Amino acid sequence: MKKAIFLLPLFLLANEWFITNKEYGKMLYNNPRGISCAKCHGKKATGKIIAKYKKNKKTIYIKAPNIQNITYEKLKKRLLNYNKLSIMPKYSYLTKQEIEALFLYIKSQRSKK
Hints:
CATH class: Mainly Alpha
CATH architecture: Orthogonal Bundle
Shape: globular
């Protein structure tokens, strides 16, 4: 019984000990146990130029897209369905909860109009 009495205050304070889903999503966005989303999509998920090269005296840019307005289903599909023809890295190891946290963070980055 003493253990239950001791654990009750800890349980009541537990919400203050853990990070929010949005904070967890931010951590995953910056370090998803692989290549950072921010590395290609930018700090605010607006996309950025990954590389550029010259072809026939013309500069060609490879750019990651703005993903601020991506739907949950599209994000999930892009993360879990690896495509050899895409430069998007493979993230099939992310859990459903991690994808939801990532989506919540990305959604929070939407530009305010």
